[in-house]
Amino acid sequence: MQPPPKKLLDQVRDAIRLKHYAYRTEETYVQWIRRYILFHNKRHPKEMGKAEIEAFLTHLAVEGQVAASTQNQALSALLFLYREVLNLDMMGIDAVRAKRPQYVPTVMTKQEALAVIHLCDGVYQLIVKLLYGSGLRLIEGLRLRVKDVDFAQQQILVRDGKGSKSRVTMLPSSVAVELRDHLVGVQRQHQRDLSRGFGAVPLPFALERKYPNADREWLWQYVFPASQVAKDPRNGLMCRHHLHESGVQKAVKQAARGAKLTKRIGCHTFRHSFATHLLESGYDIRTIQELLGHRDVKTTMIYTHVLNRGGKGVRSPLDD
Fold first, then answer.
1. Can you list the domains of the chain with their CATH numbers?
2. pLDDT confidence of 308, banded at 50, 70, 90?
3. What global pTM score does this model have?
4. Does the structure show a pLDDT above 90 at 117?
5. Which residues form a coiled coil (predicted)?
6. Side-chain half-sphere exposure of 203, counting CA atoms within 13 A
7. Catalytic residue check, 271
8. Looking at 29, 82, 222, 303, which residue is catalytic?
């Protein structure tokens, strides 16, 4: 007797895992596909095509008033569904597109950045120091594993960053000693987990099958582990994941309020400030591009616009 066919969303999950996409991407794609199906009164996507996709995307832009990046995310999820799961070509989608705003990132002065860092506590302060000192995205910092930190060469290897790209960035010498002390405590916690029969961490891709015991080895542990052991949503095993983003985000917002800054400050502001301050110090933009992991130097060039704010660097006649 043949087993019943898998449900569509389970097929989507299998296809995403086959492509080694991140778990957050998996959850996001599944959510958009579910919304697409519900929008069309639970019709099966096989019965729908370009017209239904365009109607859904237009609805998001016109009635939902979503940002351009959100609409693009929904489109990517639906194209993945049709291309990778249903084996159907859906090129040439013509929908009302959300307008992409001209974006200039918020940047702190060095004094403002240090003030916010000073008002963060404990492990959150250490994480924010790395965001500012190494130019990491928040999720990149939280996903760091012990083996990714090279104290001898004072560098950090960021694995599978945005776009599944890896890169090397600096480890600030002012943070190295504090990070070493932090890892001593993390290692003690790991030893306690092992003695209780735990101590595993989720491994990327199929490494848990290739190296059955690697998930309990010290080198694979997260630099910033969660406070509690929890069930891995993909394999159901009890693991110690990394800290959740929300804790760091709340700490930064609270610290920014305490510093009485009038700018809108978030975790990503430290990455923007890292790039801008390097430019101010005279570093080459190609070097900064590599440190940030940008695919195109045009993305990095936005920080030159930040430097030129105030009439593109032109001196006001009022100041003469």
1. 8-85 (1.10.150.130), 110-305 (1.10.443.10)
2. low
3. 0.81
4. yes
5. none
6. 19
7. yes
8. 303
